[in-house]
Protein backbone atom coordinates (compact mmCIF):
# COMPACT_ATOMS: atom_id res chain seq x y z
CA UNK A 1 0.00 0.00 0.00
CA UNK A 2 1.11 3.48 -0.82
CA UNK A 3 1.59 5.80 2.16
CA UNK A 4 -0.37 9.04 2.23
CA UNK A 5 1.92 11.97 1.79
CA UNK A 6 1.89 14.52 4.60
CA UNK A 7 -0.25 17.57 3.90
CA UNK A 8 0.77 20.83 5.53
CA UNK A 9 -2.24 22.48 7.19
CA UNK A 10 -2.53 26.09 8.35
CA UNK A 11 -4.82 27.78 10.85
CA UNK A 12 -7.02 30.61 9.55
CA UNK A 13 -4.63 33.29 10.86
CA UNK A 14 -1.62 31.54 9.27
CA UNK A 15 -3.48 31.19 5.94
CA UNK A 16 -4.36 34.90 6.05
CA UNK A 17 -0.71 35.79 6.59
CA UNK A 18 0.33 33.38 3.80
CA UNK A 19 -2.02 35.12 1.32
CA UNK A 20 -1.54 38.61 2.77
CA UNK A 21 -5.27 39.06 3.51
CA UNK A 22 -7.30 39.48 6.70
CA UNK A 23 -8.47 36.42 8.65
CA UNK A 24 -12.06 37.57 8.05
CA UNK A 25 -11.45 37.18 4.30
CA UNK A 26 -10.27 33.58 4.80
CA UNK A 27 -13.37 32.86 6.93
CA UNK A 28 -15.63 34.34 4.24
CA UNK A 29 -13.94 32.19 1.56
CA UNK A 30 -14.42 29.12 3.76
CA UNK A 31 -18.13 29.89 4.15
CA UNK A 32 -18.50 30.34 0.36
CA UNK A 33 -16.50 27.13 -0.16
CA UNK A 34 -13.84 28.93 -2.18
CA UNK A 35 -11.25 27.15 -0.01
CA UNK A 36 -11.31 23.55 1.18
CA UNK A 37 -11.06 22.92 4.91
CA UNK A 38 -10.06 20.06 7.15
CA UNK A 39 -11.84 19.72 10.51
CA UNK A 40 -9.48 19.04 13.41
CA UNK A 41 -11.99 19.03 16.20
CA UNK A 42 -15.52 20.10 16.83
CA UNK A 43 -14.99 23.72 15.73
CA UNK A 44 -11.39 24.09 14.58
CA UNK A 45 -10.51 23.97 10.90
CA UNK A 46 -7.26 23.96 8.97
CA UNK A 47 -6.56 24.91 5.36
CA UNK A 48 -4.17 22.86 3.16
CA UNK A 49 -1.22 24.86 1.83
CA UNK A 50 -1.71 23.15 -1.55
CA UNK A 51 -5.14 24.79 -1.82
CA UNK A 52 -3.66 28.21 -1.06
CA UNK A 53 -0.95 27.72 -3.68
CA UNK A 54 -3.60 26.67 -6.22
CA UNK A 55 -5.66 29.80 -5.36
CA UNK A 56 -2.61 31.99 -5.97
CA UNK A 57 -1.79 30.21 -9.24
CA UNK A 58 -5.35 30.45 -10.60
CA UNK A 59 -5.79 34.12 -9.70
CA UNK A 60 -2.45 35.53 -10.78
CA UNK A 61 -1.94 37.33 -14.07
CA UNK A 62 1.34 36.19 -15.69
CA UNK A 63 3.88 38.99 -15.87
CA UNK A 64 7.38 38.99 -17.40
CA UNK A 65 10.06 38.56 -14.74
CA UNK A 66 11.18 41.86 -13.29
CA UNK A 67 8.44 43.86 -15.03
CA UNK A 68 6.11 45.99 -12.98
CA UNK A 69 2.46 45.42 -13.76
CA UNK A 70 0.08 48.35 -13.56
CA UNK A 71 -3.59 47.45 -13.59
CA UNK A 72 -6.34 49.97 -14.15
CA UNK A 73 -9.50 50.13 -12.04
CA UNK A 74 -11.45 48.84 -15.03
CA UNK A 75 -9.17 45.82 -15.49
CA UNK A 76 -9.46 44.92 -11.81
CA UNK A 77 -13.26 45.32 -11.82
CA UNK A 78 -13.61 43.19 -14.99
CA UNK A 79 -11.33 40.49 -13.53
CA UNK A 80 -13.26 40.31 -10.27
CA UNK A 81 -16.84 41.07 -11.35
CA UNK A 82 -16.97 40.06 -15.02
CA UNK A 83 -18.60 42.18 -17.69
CA UNK A 84 -20.28 45.42 -16.55
CA UNK A 85 -24.04 45.47 -16.14
CA UNK A 86 -24.34 48.74 -18.02
CA UNK A 87 -22.45 51.69 -19.46
CA UNK A 88 -23.38 55.29 -18.72
CA UNK A 89 -21.24 57.75 -20.65
CA UNK A 90 -17.62 57.15 -19.61
CA UNK A 91 -18.66 55.16 -16.56
CA UNK A 92 -19.10 51.41 -16.31
CA UNK A 93 -21.59 50.13 -13.73
CA UNK A 94 -21.74 46.80 -11.89
CA UNK A 95 -23.97 45.38 -9.19
CA UNK A 96 -22.05 45.95 -5.96
CA UNK A 97 -21.01 42.63 -4.33
CA UNK A 98 -20.91 44.27 -0.87
CA UNK A 99 -24.66 44.80 -0.58
CA UNK A 100 -27.90 43.74 -2.25
CA UNK A 101 -28.38 45.78 -5.40
CA UNK A 102 -31.28 45.89 -7.77
CA UNK A 103 -29.68 48.65 -9.78
CA UNK A 104 -25.97 48.83 -10.62
CA UNK A 105 -24.19 51.11 -8.15
CA UNK A 106 -20.51 50.16 -8.36
CA UNK A 107 -19.12 52.77 -10.71
CA UNK A 108 -15.75 52.76 -12.50
CA UNK A 109 -14.60 55.85 -14.35
CA UNK A 110 -11.64 54.75 -16.49
CA UNK A 111 -10.61 58.32 -17.37
CA UNK A 112 -10.27 59.38 -13.74
CA UNK A 113 -9.15 55.95 -12.44
CA UNK A 114 -11.99 56.10 -9.93
CA UNK A 115 -13.89 53.20 -8.42
CA UNK A 116 -16.78 54.07 -6.09
CA UNK A 117 -20.18 52.91 -4.90
CA UNK A 118 -22.68 55.58 -5.93
CA UNK A 119 -25.09 55.11 -3.04
CA UNK A 120 -22.28 55.85 -0.56
CA UNK A 121 -20.96 59.05 -2.09
CA UNK A 122 -24.37 60.46 -3.06
CA UNK A 123 -25.66 60.34 0.52
CA UNK A 124 -23.02 62.79 1.77
Query: How would you sum up the major sheet?
Result: 4 strands, antiparallel
On the 0 to 100 scale, the average pLDDT is 79
* CATH hierarchy: architecture of the largest domain: Alpha-Beta Complex
Q: Separation of termini?
A: 67 Å
How many domains is the backbone divided into? 2
Shape: elongated
Q: From the helix content, strand content and strand pairing, which structural class follows?
A: alpha+beta
**Discrete helix count:** 5
Description of the molecule:
The protein has five helices and seven strands. Helices cover 34% and strands 19% of the residues. Strand 6 and strand 7 form a beta hairpin. It has a four-stranded antiparallel beta sheet. A three-stranded antiparallel beta sheet has the order 1-3-2. By secondary structure, the protein is α+β, with helices and mostly antiparallel strands. The chain has helices at residues 12-19, 23-31, 49-58, 73-81, 118-123, and strands spanning 9-10, 38-39, 45-48, 86-88, 91-94, 106-109, 114-117. The protein folds into two domains: 9-58; 73-123, Zinc finger, CHC2-typedomain (DNA Primase, Chain A, Alpha-Beta Complex), CATH 3.90.580. It is elongated and about 55 Å long.
